[in-house]
Design goal:
Elements (H helix, E strand, L loop, with lengths): L1 H65 L7 H9 L12 H9 L8 H23 L1 H14 L2 H16 L3 H8 L10 H12 L3 H24 L1
């Protein structure tokens, strides 16, 4: 009888632990879904911003490849050159993941593939962060070279138009600026060449690809967590 009572007590305790772990897994899964939905919202904005920057910088390359700087309307150079200094940062909402990792709670997920996907998502986040960090030095240098080509007040006008267009897109206003001819500080081809090289070294396409991979993984993980 004593043996039976001890055995039943052990089984009951094990069942309670399983119920508790299952409840915690559901709670963590729901919290992580919220975190990931916040991340995907961020990533969509990041991808759109960097894709736009990449397209505009490509246009700058095409213009300078086909013409000397003096032959191009300076409004075009101000506008397309603006995007070489594009900057965005993705900061994952990883509070739930860090809590689970520190407490060893990832094992609560009953489907092993979920824990693996969570770990892979963390790896992809760190990889994207590393890519952004490696760009910091180039970003600083490109701002320095930009200050040798573009006069600040006209560059500020171009930036104001762009920021306004992110809220309410106004193609007429953009075209109106592009077709103006504000003065440049220099037409030195060597300086322009240095600006192009720095812009090319920012690898916007690589940033977009990394963000897109992370976004797709997040969407897939959200689906798995909802099943969990």
């Amino acid at each position: 009888m004593i043996f039976l009572a001890v055995t039943l007590g052990f089984i009951a305790e094990n069942i309670r632990e399983k119920i508790t772990e299952h409840h915690k897994a559901k709670t963590y899964a729901a919290e992580m879904v919220n975190d990931l939905e916040s991340d995907t919202s961020q990533l969509r904005k990041y991808i759109n911003y960097m894709t736009n920057a990449a397209h505009n910088v490509d246009t700058l390359f095409q213009l300078l490849s086909a013409h000397e700087p003096k032959e191009i309307l300076s409004g075009k150079l101000y506008w397309y050159g603006l995007f070489a200094g594009a900057s965005a940062e993705f900061v994952p909402d990883d509070a739930t993941f860090e809590q689970m990792k520190s407490s060893g709670s990832l094992s609560y997920f009953t489907h092993g593939s979920v824990a693996k996907k969570v770990a892979e998502y963390d790896r992809l986040c760190r990889l994207m962060k590393s890519t952004d960090n490696s760009d910091e030095g180039i970003y600083v240098e490109i701002r320095k070279v930009r200050s040798q080509i573009f006069e600040f007040k006209y560059n500020a006008v171009a930036n104001d138009i762009y920021q306004a267009s992110r809220v309410l897109y106004d193609r007429k206003r953009i075209d109106s600026f592009i077709n103006t001819n504000p003065p440049l500080l220099t037409y030195d081809k060597t300086i322009f060449n240095g600006y192009e090289e720095l812009a090319r070294s920012r690898f916007f396409d690589r940033k977009v690809s990394a963000a897109d991979t992370l976004y797709k993984h997040a969407v897939s993980l959200i689906g798995d967590l909802k099943k969990e």
